[in-house]
Amino acid sequence: MDHRAAGLTDGEALATYRWMLLTRRLEERLALLQRSGAFPLALSSRGHEAAQIGAALAFQPKLDWWYPYYRDLGAVLVAGSTLLDLMLSSFGKATDPASGGRQTAYNWGDRRLNIVARSAPVAVQVPQAAGSALALRRQGSRAVVYCSLGDGATSQGDFHEGLNFAALHRAPVVYICQNNQWAISVPFGRQTAGGSVAQRAAGYGMPGITVDGTDPFAVGAAAREAVDRARRGLGPSLLELRVARLDSHTSDDDQRQYRSQEDLGEAAARDPLPAARGYLRREDLLPDDLERQWEVDILSELDGAERRAREAPDAVP
Ligand SMILES: Cc1ncc(C[n+]2csc(CCOP(=O)(O)OP(=O)(O)O)c2C)c(N)n1
Fold first, then answer.
1. Is there a domain that residue 47 lies in?
2. Whose CB among 96, 134, 200, 208 lies 3.0–4.6 Å from 238's, allowing a Cys bridge?
3. Is the backbone of residue 260 left (phi > 0), alpha (psi -120 to 50) or beta?
């Protein structure tokens, strides 16, 4: 989608891509660190960046509340987590803002930023986000709640209970389903009746919208509308962002065991990074030197964060 049609200035379009690039480079560093034995788990967000950044930028950090799921690296960055915060969490250090290194990595949380740590069962955050949203409204807050989940999580009872409760009470929450077509090794078609997540919203009387999750500007436009609706007291929405999962479920998984070469090739072709970059280049918005400078800056930020995280005290046993 043309970024102007999505209501963004040239500067905002560039900033969107800068966030996507930061997310990608951080993900790559965490994967490398895991492979080198620095910590046990890495969980890839590659392929989801446009969805995460496009959606998260529609919210107001520090005012709004966040229930991100484990793949939502880009959203926690936009919410205000620093590279150091996220490294501390992956390294399991005592100063990790989520849990002092006690929680499994990728279950991020930060009291300072209204990011609520979820627990491991998928979809538990859906009713929690509904409850928080209702509480915020009763306190007279203008805050809206961001709650993300995968497509597999929509098979859980919590998903349906949460949507029902949120809609019934007009809770100011936006549900962001990042549909990558896989729940570990189970394809979408083998666990989701009806073929659509978004359509399920109709049963609860809330808007349900399907968006190309590889287009950050289309996602942003849909998310801003949903946030605005929630802020005006009109209740929750469900966005289904269709994305491609480029990597295995986690660093403990090998997707070549259950995905065909053809499927992997189709996913790779839907990588949102080169698509967004190509768009900005065609629009003459992303000069070579700016891109080079960003890469240099991000590399140095990552090096600094990694060094400080390595030096930080370990979690207390
Ligand atoms: C209730 C529950 N069942 C099973 C699991 C194991 N599990 C962890 S992640 C996952 C896949 C979820 O897939 P999806 O919601 O599509 O998100 P994705 O990882 O694809 O982004 C499963 C089955 C779990 N954490 N909780």
1. yes
2. 208
3. beta
CATH of the domain at 283: 3.40.50.970
Q: Locate the ligand 1 atom nearest the alpha carbon of residue 183 and give its number.
A: 13
- Residue 3 within any structural domain of the chain: no
249 assigned to active site? yes
**pLDDT band, residue 317 (cuts 50/70/90):** confident
Domain annotation covers residue 112: yes
Q: How many domains does the structure of the chain reveal?
A: 1
Show the domain range for 75: 10-311
* Cβ-contact 274, 21 below 8 angstroms: no
The string of pLDDT tens digits covering residues 199-243 is 999 999 999 999 999 999 999 999 999 999 999 999 999 999 999
Q: What is the mean pLDDT of residues 277-281?
A: 98
Q: Which of 103, 119, 122, 179 best tests ligand 1's pocket when mutated (most atoms within 8 Å of CB)?
A: 122
How far is Cα 92 from Cα 311, in angstroms, rounded to an integer?
Answer: 12
CB atoms within 10 A of CB 230: 27
Name the residue with the closest Cα to ligand 1, atom 25.
121
Specify the DSSP class assigned to residue 292. H
Residue 199 inside a domain? The answer is: yes
Structure tokens at 100: 């002092």
- The atom number, within ligand 1, closest to the CA of 184 reads 11
Is residue 43 within 8 A of residue 68, CB to CB? The reply is no
Residues 93-145 have pLDDT tens digits of 999 999 999 989 999 999 999 999 988 999 999 999 999 999 999 999 999 99
- Give pLDDT, residue 316: 86
